[in-house]
Amino acid sequence: MGNVLGSPKGNALNPRLEPDPIIPEPYLTPGNRTLGFLFDDHQKAYPINWSWDMGIPDKHIDETWVTIMLGSGLRLDGAGGKTPYVTLWDDEGKRVGQHWPADDAQLWNNDKLSDKTFKIQHAHARDKMVTAKYVMISLFDGDGLCLSAVQVSNGLESTTWYGDMGQYCGMQWYLSERKLGHDLPAPKCVWLATDLGYSSSLHWHVPDVYGTKSKLAGYLMDQQKYMCHSTPRFAEWRGLTADGIIPFFKPVLQYEVDAETGLPGRDKTPEDAVDKIQWNKNANRFPSPHFGRSLPSTTQNETQSSSSRKKRGFNPNTGHLIITEQKGHEASLVCNSTTSYGWDVVSLRERKYCDMTVRRLYHLCDSGRQENCFDVDKEKLVGKGGINARGEASLLGVPEKRYTSRTHWKHGV
């Protein structure tokens, strides 16, 4: 089984965990056959074991299975959309294969992960048993997708990329309903969309998403530099098409072997992975490097995007409210972020509410706070003057909010 963690057949100590078709997706029982990483409250990477075992072949095969997990579960409004394109390359930058979806193919919010596992033939590779080392996910049109995780496996090597990495490196993001398991966290999800200013594609270098002790120690020497300023390692693209060519590491990166797992550890020469040039992230087919002086900090697309955002705010549906009990879903996280995009949210753990249209944070109303707060029962902001004897909330000093739909993320989901 090579670098796949765990046994596909299972045993008494480490059984292969199959999904219960009766349990909704947010309750998925986790396997532990991929080792990736998430980020803690201090934005420090830490290892996480998880796997969708039905998306991992029982042996090394001549195709790659790619399983896409959206940030939505059965009840999160609007985070599903058109099925994306998936493109694979080997470590030398040669195309291995591609998933080219039908024009009307959709990823629905209530799809099971088995419906989101794409089996990609190695049609472009001479060696059909090759292992893909670069993965790109692309949208051409349609509603945006919020990606929470992507598992990649050919039975020999299995990895999972998580949306936390995209959020950490500056992509637009939101909280995810999907926990990896009852006792495991919910990765953040990052948005892919074809609207101006949004990322329509992202890619990553597969060996660099292992959460081995050695690799994370290497990243932590300068996490932003080694994760986010290495375009071949990970990048988002505003216009790169499914036939676009991403930058590759040349020469191929060399890694130490992680002593605990035998998987790739830290880079032997970390500086080899860091960008020496700046890439044009607005390219359609062939990203071009910019030598010499850095690009201006604001491009035309970013300026137009900022103008568009002022009109629509940071909320795709102002009539939808999320009420969450989950740890890691603090309303202050999305309100205090400059890259968050999503729905108004109430955190019952934090006792805070975020108005995502303007990213403004409020306390929840209680016996000691009756003004400039959010009343959960009435689902209304209460301004100066509080609530009168007839139960009417004052709007003085606060915007009026009317919700027509709501989602409750309960603890343990």
Structural class: mainly beta
First-to-last CA distance = 32 Å
Strand content: 25-35%
Specify the biggest β-sheet: 7 strands, mixed
Oligomer: single chain
Order of strands across the main sheet:
25-24-23-22-21-20-26
**Any idea what the radius of gyration is?**
22 Å
Low-confidence stretches: 1-29, 73-79, 292-308
What would your notes on this structure say?
There is one protein chain. The protein has 2 domains: 25-290, no CATH class; 320-409, no CATH class. The protein is built from 5 helices and 26 strands. It has helices at residues 163-168, 213-219, 223-228, 300-312, 331-335, and strands at 34-39, 45-50, 63-70, 81-82, 85-89, 95-99, 106-107, 117-121, 134-138, 145-153, 158-162, 173-174, 189-192, 201-205, 234-237, 255-257, 264-267, 278-279, 289-290, 320-324, 344-347, 352-355, 360-364, 373-375, 380-382, 405-409. A 7-stranded mixed beta sheet has the order 25-24-23-22-21-20-26. Strands 3, 8, 10, 11, 12 and 13 form a 6-stranded antiparallel beta sheet that branches. It has a 5-stranded antiparallel beta sheet with strand order 6-5-9-14-15, with no helix packed on it. Residues 297-307 have a biased composition (Low complexity). Residues 282-319 are annotated as: Disordered.
